[in-house]
Amino acid sequence: MTFQVHRYRKTWNIGDAIQTIALERLLPAVSYVWRDLDTPAEDIPFIVNGWLGNNQPPVTNPNCLFAGVYVHSNEHNYRWIGNSRFSEVGARDPATVMWCADRKIRATLIGCATLSFDPYTGPRSGIYAVDAKGAEGTAICHDIGDMEWDAQLSLARELLQRYRCAELVTTSRLHVALPCLAFGTPVIIQDPMRWGNRERNRRFSILDAVGARYDTPFVQDVSAWRQRYISFLERHLGIRITPRPFV
């Protein structure tokens, strides 16, 4: 069985491709839908994850399952979610649960697909500073400009492999911190409050939910979040999921 998932054009952030890689390894087969550009086929379930921004096209397709979404506060997203045949939203973070509750939409906190990666127990090497001001280590930037989708996937896999085997990663990026927690990689998450950006703090509320500590090396068992995400998909899609390993 095939499921539709997002692909991204002019996203500027490789973290979007990282989310798609995390999600597609949980599904038997996938086809891609351009975010903000394509209208998904109605006869194939569309698994929507990530940030629902301001520029989504008009969507009347009821075959959309929202699984690990952060909802930006606009009424287009309300209409899109309200049209779904699925009775429940899988919220990525507490901020989205609150957004749904304010609109009488049933929602369950399931976290992000990037928390579903398997832990890594092999040898570790490399210290990385990913969009992290003042941090030690090899500098990496997640701003990518206008990159073709295949190139995004290739780069995202390369970066994930580095984070998976790293000794330490310091980052200000959500979709570096979450995969590192899943991999069991020690991570220093720079406190999002330092930017004073309310929207950023809402998106990062998932870190508070998983018990993250900021500005200090941190490792956390997130296996319960992995199972929470997978169980949500299994319950609504009626399939048995055997995650493919990331190697």
UniProtKB/TrEMBL annotation:
Residues 76-188 form the Polysaccharide pyruvyl transferase domain. This is Polysaccharide pyruvyl transferase domain-containing protein. It comes from Chthoniobacter flavus Ellin428. The lineage of its organism: Bacteria, Pseudomonadati, Verrucomicrobiota, Spartobacteria, Chthoniobacterales.
